[in-house]
Write a structure and sequence with these properties.
single chain
Length: about 375
Amino acid sequence: MTLAPHVHGFALAIAASATLVASAPDASAEAVTLTDIAGREITLPQAPTRIILGEGRMMYAIAPLTDGNPFEKIVGWKDDLIQYDPDAFRKFEAAFPQDAARMVNFGNPYAGDFSIEAVLENEADLVLLDLGNLFKAEETGLIDKLDKAGVPVAFIDFRQNPTENAIPSMLLLGRVLGEEKNAAEFIDFYVAQMRKVSNVVAGIPAEERPLVVVENAAGWQNDFCCWSFGPYNYGRFVELAGGTNYGSKLANAYSVDLSLEGILTADPDVVIGTGANWAEARPEVTATLLGYEADAEENAKRIKALAERSGFKDLRAVQEGRMHSIYHQFYNSPYHFIAIQQIAKWLHPADFEDLDPQATFDELHSKFMPYENSGQFWVTLN
């Protein structure tokens, strides 16, 4: 059987996952050898119990794997979760107040404020980094410094190529956390939810796939248009949801800058921006403040203001009510299938009439997350 390209990627990931599970050592073995998402073979002398997260938002992936306390084996992090998704941080804080308070802020591992001395003082036995920053980690000498200090480094990826790397990343985390069974259960759920879209999109002809402009962090800067994605991350989500991503036409790159003139000329069928509660760290943002504490009335006003920006109000998609905003942090989590499901409903409402992304998100929380769902994670211009 020949698989459609978007299904083929899942098959490859599942095959790679099966290999990873098959090669897993016995749980009683002292040393663990694995290959991370950067293709680096690393050996852990023993199961790690004092892990540093290169990004606090890695908790999105760690939380679904743990039945108990997701902070149990985490020493500290970069404070991006607190800064850029305070709604989610407060969910964790309410559930695990003492552990959230004890997290050490190690700073940015790809900048000068990351202290190797602090890593050693806290007796870390593993540092988890993001694949998208592999070059920076090599260029700054971080990997070499940690290696010389005897602290292993492993790369995971939920941002650069999330739909290919989510499954092996979750398996890797399952192994280092000793949560292989939970990882397998999450992956089963992940694949089932992705296929609710991919099985339908496979039958949608190219000429019926609407042109979509994705505005990355819409409203982050008030005088700039626009950041977007090539065929990666949210650009890939659009393609998997049955759309044609405008940024992919411009460059085969993760990040693509768009001009307002180019957008007006392209006259997209749909405009989708991303938003999150950035207002606490950056009060001047005009973005939609999507997340666990979001206010629907406030976000209705905010997306209306984004639609009324110079140039945007002239777009056919805006005038016809096909402008949407969706939670930015789906772009860096293993549950990006929620975003793909919702985008699919926007692009092909008749084909996905029975698909309920909100119910999927609620089920994810009830099965895997240590707190209940709440808030608002997408909004459409009325």
